[in-house]
Write a structure and sequence with these properties.
Chain lengths: ~600, ~450
């Protein structure tokens, strides 16, 4: 096997967290190498107008996504079923290439609510230990909101997030989210303008006594220079965010916020088309010696490193830990073990609101995050869950992220699925339809987890990751409750007609339907090594020179989009590495 | 006399003329290499020892002169040469100026180096192609030249890389006629060149940088049919820096024309443009991208101000009225009126970045309203930008290389002419209309349009 010269730190995966860690560790003077299995991609030439604005190529055929024919996951609903491969994109989208999912996200940039980070303690304290079912395995993150706040802010200032603060140093601000934790500073940019659908939603919500605010958006509302000196251009509401790269340099991505500086640093190197097979351990299994990867020529290469950062997508992090034998695999029968534990997803519902031709929604005016209004009254623990018999919640959103013809065109219920009648309805509805949705949490359960599939293998002969997941009652109740609240707002918006999509009790998780790419857990953080794989600094309890970044660290899923928290946690871990670990390499928390 | 003998007689006469011509050429060649004066002293030794300070100073001089622009090939080792430079008769290749003794300039004495840089003659006595801007470099001070020599000899890693022969076919590849070109068009450097000085030291420094090391005139001054710049300094008259062209780009006037020159551009704006590659209204594009990336971004602020102040001291060659913003087009476009010729094309292709008011976004997307590049007489740069796109330089102060996509595959000659005519006549701009034939002609000269890559894109080399 080819052996490369050693580096101080090797980063597996070059998306958001890989780029943040790369920048932080390169700034600390380390010799840093990032390994990315995909190709190099940048705003120009790859996301250049008009080539990128091609819904068939990018939205449907997924040109920016990981090819599932080479590696995918398998899925089953319960421990006694046989899992089958996810062969066509549906439920969630794996980013591929430089920038990862940070290229094709929408830019919806949230912080967790303070109680989300201490969720188990908070629920126990407010509602008692018996409020949640015995198989619900909710946990605390091991890091609190106040500690994390500067790092959440740091990521927002990197991204140039546009929004309106709702809580500045404890003082509630008019027009922001009154339920959010206190911010030391306002957003770096003012909110984007609202689309008309969002205005209708916000007016109706306000009328009902709710607290709408502009969605925090990492689509820049104005030209912005971030603390690294990298610039973003203002968003023009083109409506091609999710599944696409941004041709306007407006959507925060590693390409638009970090790479122009990081890629020019002499102590940083990126190798693309480098697929990591495993993290190598020493004979005792307590220290990583580097990684083994397959290079562009198909040759296996050993890359020695003092420090290994596992920074791939959530699922891939879990799989790499299992393939490398770091940490004990989770066993649902006994509820012991940590790798694969607490896999969770999110639960969405949506309502299409159809108007008459005199209401011009003009859905082609849209942005992935900006231009949408949010109601956070029913998320996290922002309301008394006592009477409702569930924990968690969802935010409601109103407006549209675009009017793409294939995936964003709704017709009223009862319309035939094809033919002249469909065409007529599509033509009548297109300019006059907007959407309200709910974006909800999913708790962790003893029988919902990730492990290696016993049957299916990837292009390199390694076992695929197997998902065992289905909905539980808590989530059916949550989605019913928040969807009813959303319907009340929609009714107050006075559309001609509306149609609701909501998951009913008994509906199975359907991997063919897109909901969110917000899969979480499997390498979770916490304060107890018997129930978490990582300590509060994202450091492996078992192999202290391995850190694992990303949503794989979330103990359960929240009602928010994960990227803001992912970025904040990565900066938090990077600070611990720079200020403490590098001076005294070893466990940052004693088990 | 029959026809055959007439022909034979004519043949003999032709041969006679040929022999005579060859004899004259031979004489000229011999005289050229022997008698056209060069000056300088090839035996001269370096005036100062190569201290670390001198080497560092020399590195800065190399930045000021942008030696790397030609002497470092894309993806090649620094200063090892090999960059192809197009000439009307074939490509020539820049030379290895690393201190390698066999293939570089390691064997050059200081005096030989001086003759190459300031006088355009190599150590074998051959004249350099005037792609090497020695007419401008003849102004380099003794102090700067000594520093540059110290840097190239001791601060640059030697690279063994033989120079590549030019692609110019014989007989045009003969070098001796260049001696006459040199004698006719290049100023003869005095034996010693003092550092610039005068009543206004900032202006003097600016003149020294622009006319000398910066060799701005190489692109920005029009050239005669015999390829010499029509003026070499401010004293040479109003043609100096009045605009030239390179590689199908227009190098705009750097004089004080109100609409198409620097008349409406402030000193601080100019400094920011040269330092970061962009400013509140404008951005660097085309051939100037390399100059900013490799050279001007490294100038000290004092030197940039000197350059800007000197340029701002040059009176306009033509009197032009200053452009005044006219809101009529913006109002029409805001109101949804795209009936003007080219307006619809502008909205569909340009307005996302440059906006319907033509003002762009500061530091990000350049304004088209009042932009000197839009108001110049020759629209070649605009046509080239629209067809092929481009990217801003990446600098310390502006690391993001905002790119304009190529529209060559999307817009017809007629479309390009129409949208550019719209841009050149909107928001107070006063450029002439662009004809489809102009677009067609330029399209034929340009490479296949491809979206730009950043300088750090690993796929670029």
């Amino acid at each position: 096997m080819k052996r490369m010269p050693p580096v101080d730190a090797v980063i597996v995966g070059f998306g958001w967290t890989g780029a943040i860690m790369g920048m932080e560790l390169a700034e600390a003077g380390l010799k840093v190498l990032a390994l990315e299995r995909g190709e190099y991609r940048d705003t120009s030439p790859d996301f250049s107008y008009p080539g990128i604005v091609d819904e068939l190529a990018y939205g449907i055929r997924g040109m920016l996504f990981q090819p599932l024919a080479r590696e995918t996951v398998t899925i089953r609903h319960g421990v006694n079923e046989t899992a089958v491969p996810y062969r066509q994109y549906g439920s969630f989208l794996f980013g591929n290439n430089v920038g990862g999912a940070g290229v094709h996200w929408n830019g919806q940039h949230y912080r967790p609510s303070p109680e989300d980070l201490e969720f188990a303690s908070h629920v126990r304290q407010r509602y008692g230990a018996k409020f949640t079912p015995p198989d619900m395995q909710i946990q605390d993150y091991g890091v609190g909101y106040a500690e994390l706040e500067p790092y959440l802010e740091k990521f927002e200032y990197l991204c140039g997030t546009s929004g309106r603060a709702g809580n500045l140093g404890g003082r509630i601000q008019e027009g922001g989210n009154p339920f959010e934790g206190p911010r030391a500073r306002d957003y770096p940019n003012p909110p984007m303008a609202d689309t008309y659908g969002a205005q209708l939603f916000a007016d109706a919500a306000r009328e009902r006594g709710l607290h709408p605010f502009p969605q925090p958006s990492s689509n820049a509302s104005r030209p912005y220079t971030n603390p690294l000196g990298v610039r973003l251009g203002p968003c023009n509401f083109c409506g091609f965010c999710e599944r696409f790269g941004c041709y306007m340099y407006s959507k925060a991505a590693p390409q638009t916020t970090i790479l122009p500086v990081l890629m020019r640093r002499p102590n940083f190197q990126l190798r693309t088309r480098s697929h990591v097979l495993k993290v190598n351990l020493d004979a005792g299994g307590r220290r990583a010696t580097g990684v083994t990867y397959v290079d562009a020529q198909g040759e296996q290469v050993e890359q020695p490193a003092e420090l290994v950062i596992v920074a791939a997508f959530q699922m891939h992090n879990v799989r790499l830990m299992l393939l490398s034998g770091i940490g004990k695999p989770y066993d649902p029968a006994s509820g012991t073990g940590v790798i694969g534990r607490n896999y969770a997803y999110q639960m969405m519902s949506s309502i299409a609101a159809f108007y008459d031709p005199d209401t011009a929604i003009n859905p082609f005016i849209g942005a992935g995050a900006g231009g949408t209004q949010i109601v956070d009254d029913f998320n996290s623990d922002h309301f008394d869950h006592g009477p409702h018999g569930f924990v968690g919640g969802a935010y409601l959103f109103g407006g549209q992220t675009g009017g793409r013809p294939i995936q964003q065109l709704a017709v009223p219920p009862g319309t035939p699925a094809w033919g002249a009648a469909w065409k007529r309805a599509a033509k009548q509805s297109y300019l006059h339809t907007t959407f309200v949705g709910t974006h909800g949490s999913v708790m962790a359960y003893r029988d919902r987890y990730l492990d290696l599939d016993p049957t299916y293998r990837d292009a390199f002969g390694q076992p695929l990751l197997r998902i065992t997941f289905d909905w539980h009652d808590n989530e059916y109740r949550m989605t019913r409750f928040v969807t009813d609240r959303a319907q009340e707002v929609v009714d107050a918006m006075k559309p001609r007609q509306s149609s609701q999509t909501v998951r009913q009790p008994g509906d199975h998780y359907d991997i063919r339907q897109y909901q969110t790419t917000h899969t979480t857990g499997g390498v979770i953080m916490g304060s107890d090594p018997s129930t978490s794989a990582l300590n509060r600094y994202l450091q492996s309890w078992d192999v202290p020179n391995v850190f694992v970044t990303g949503a794989s660290a979330f103990p359960q899923n929240l009602g928010y989009n994960p990227t803001g928290l992912i970025g904040g946690l990565t900066y938090w871990a990077a600070r611990a590495i720079r200020e403490t670990y590098l001076k005294h390499p070893g466990p940052l928390v004693q088990a | 006399m029959n026809a055959t003998s007439r022909r034979r007689g004519s043949g003999w006469r032709t041969l006679g003329w040929l022999v005579l011509a060859l004899a004259v050429l031979l004489l000229l060649a011999v005289l050229g290499s022997r008698l056209v004066p060069v000056g300088g002293n090839p035996q001269a030794q370096a005036p100062l020892p190569a201290s670390p300070e001198l080497i560092e100073q020399g590195a800065y001089v190399a930045r000021l002169g942008d030696c790397a622009a030609c002497h470092t090939a894309p993806g090649g080792r620094p200063f090892a040469g090999g960059l192809a430079i197009a000439s009307p008769v074939g490509a020539i290749y820049s030379t290895n100026i690393t201190p390698d003794r066999d293939t570089g300039i390691g064997a050059y004495t200081y005096g030989e180096f001086e003759r190459a840089v300031r006088r355009g003659v190599d150590r074998h006595g051959r004249s350099l192609y005037p792609a090497m801007p020695y007419p401008a470099f003849s102004r380099i001070s003794d102090a700067d030249l000594a520093a540059l020599y110290a840097y190239l000899m001791h601060g640059v890693a030697p690279v063994a890389q033989p120079d590549r022969a030019s692609g110019i076919p014989w007989p045009l590849s003969m070098r001796w006629p260049l001696a006459y070109w040199r004698a006719l068009f290049a100023p003869r450097a005095p034996a010693s060149v003092p550092a610039p000085g005068g009543a206004d030291p900032v202006l003097a420094r600016g003149a020294y940088l622009v006319e000398g090391l910066g060799h701005c005139g190489a692109c920005h001054t029009p050239r005669a049919i015999t390829l010499q710049e029509k003026a070499l300094d401010a004293r040479g008259g109003p043609l100096y820096l009045s605009g030239g062209s390179i590689d199908n780009w227009v190098a705009p006037s750097l004089r004080g024309e109100a609409a198409s020159g620097l008349g409406g551009v402030g000193e601080d704006e100019l400094v920011e443009l040269l330092k970061t590659g962009r400013n509140g209204r404008s951005a660097i594009f085309g051939s100037m991208v390399d100059a900013v990336e490799h050279s001007t971004q490294y100038f000290t602020d004092a030197d940039l101000h000197a350059v800007a102040r000197y340029l701002k001291s040059l009176p306009p060659r033509r009197e032009e009225a200053a452009p005044a913003y006219d809101a009529a087009v913006a109002k029409a476009l805001h109101a949804g009126d795209a009936s003007a010729a080219g307006a619809r094309l502008y909205l569909d292709n340009c307005a996302a970045c440059h906006r319907s008011d033509g003002r762009g976004y500061a530091q990000v997307y350049p304004a088209l309203a009042g932009n000197p590049a839009v108001n110049g007489g020759n629209p070649a740069s605009l046509i080239r930008l629209v067809l092929g796109g481009g990217a801003m330089p990446g600098t310390e102060g502006g690391p993001t290389q905002f790119a304009m996509p190529p529209f060559g595959a999307r817009l017809s000659d007629q479309d390009v002419a129409q949208v550019l005519s719209f841009v050149r006549s909107s928001w107070g701009n006063r450029g002439d209309a662009v004809a489809a034939a102009q677009v067609h002609e330029l399209r034929g000269k340009l490479p296949e349009p491809r979206a730009a890559m950043t300088g750090y894109d690993p796929r670029a080399h």
